[in-house]
Amino acid sequence: MCGIVGYIGTRQAYPILMDGLHRLEYRGYDSAGCALLSDNNELNIYKAKGKVADLELLADKQDNSGTLGIAHTRWATHGVPNEANAHPHASQSGNLTLVHNGIIENYVVLRTQLEAKGFTFKSETDTEVLVQLIEYTMNVTGADLPTSVRQALSKVIGAYAICVIDRRHPEQLVAARKSSPLVVGVVPDHTEFFIASDASPIAQYTKTMVYLNDEEMAVCQCGHQLSVTKLTGEEADMEVKEVNLDLSMLDKGGFPHFMLKEIFDQPAVLRDCMRGRVINNPYSDGDQLSVVLSAVTDHRKELLKTRRIIIVSCGTSWHAGLIGKQLIERFCRIPVEVAYASEFRYNDPVIESDDVVIAISQSGETADTLAAIEQAKNHGAFVFGIVNAVGSSIARNTDTGVYIHVGPEIGVASTKAFTGQVTVLTMLSLALGMAKGVISQKDYDETLEELIHIPEKIERILKQNDKIKQMAARFTYAHNFLYLGRGYNYPVALEGALKLKEISYIHAEGYPAAEMKHGPIALVDSEMPVIFIATHHVLYQKIVSNIQEVISRHGHIIAVVTEGDEEVAKMVDEVIEIPSTLECLDPVLTVIPLQLLSYHVAVAKGLDVDQPRNLAKSVTVE
Ligand code: G6P
To answer: Which helix (H) or strand (E) segment is 550 a member of?
Structure first.
């Protein structure tokens, strides 16, 4: 959580920093701030409670000149969101200023020690301790900024990505990280450097980027090559990458919200996700399709010897994992466990060295998922990543993996990443099932043939947007929703409920439809909207019986049904039709109307869809 940006160079820093903060606002948006070293060497710090726009209202009118600056958008951990707790934080003398993403676990001890040395604190944050500690180290040792940062960080327990400047040294910007992401953008002649929590604020200025590794520090000095060292002081192996971000993905493209744009992006990005992976089989005469994933081809040995797969993930990615379990067990006949990464890491899990652990993450930065990966690696398991953010920590810390390639997802509520993850899990289970020789050729061919038609089927569902919008307006009164589905659609029920909770603040529960009678049915009355995913598959008649049970209790039913369904349509209050598909591919279709429904309920309630309260898109703290 929290986004940080830094700039040193020849241009005015302020517009670059503000633009960068807007791009990083998905990481936190309860307060924001910036520090600029002005052209006449004044250090100006501006902070505002609220969003980046609130900061701009304040700072636009002030002296915001200067070619060196740092900025921050916050998701509060220590201390309520207010001006005092907003970053940047300055040191006692006012010489050093710092922005931080992460959590300093031993901040109380450090603060007490610093207070004993005469330091006073203006905020309740763990971050202020960092900047004071660097200053204290500098005072005691007389060392320069990079050395003092390094020495101070050796005393710190926790997670951090920091940017720090010293007003006496306008030629220098120092950044360091441990367990929180940080990217440095460089231009060929070293006249300017860009620092950010991810590549999106940098991409419009340079494609050349260095992703700092854990416990590394970067010193940016104009006219000099970027210096990257380990926090121990040794030279680091700096890997310079060419990062190609599709910049059109970073704006709303005419849609009122990123979430709606990302819902509508799905047909195109799922085509991207399959591009070059689902191909015409070069060895067949006809149009036979085949799925080729280099991660599977290159790691056959590790993948084929496994007797168990463990999927670790959080939030929406965990729901995709539940679908992945069903796909892999069906097509590969390998038992799969799905764990919340946050539970897995502390449960003393039994991990064998021949296990394969699949980590699923949109951001590639989720702290709990990263920790679960670490644990799996320590036990010798082979770790496979399914990640969206290219170059992210999870992508770099896994043994191999498949990018979902759906482009940056900005709306806090995940939509296209979910369908991308399920698409990759489908391709993975087919490729692995074929490599193991356990999937029938018929299942393989049929599923791939259907998979490539999914994008156009999503396009058909999206045409019902207006109808779903009108439907949503009728539910703004609700305080509770129940989402019910079975089999492959049970995780979709969970995901539909999560979407509604996240952005409309309506309590919603997802349940396996048949479990309803063991508890949730007690909640059903005429005030309770109940969403059934009742598509035409093997458990259809069973779901019809569950629907009857809710009708008897006067629940208001919305059913997601297969096109042409007449039976359920006659029974329920509202229906949303989706094109028919194979049961195992249902989730990528059935989730679409649920995404749209929660979006429109939230809009009808006048809520901030892209930045819902208390949430952040990238959860880089425990
Ligand atoms: C946060 C986001 C969710 C996301 C979850 C896991 O809670 O708001 O949308 O599903 O983190 O994130 P990841 O990036 O690991 O998929």
So the answer is: helix 540-552
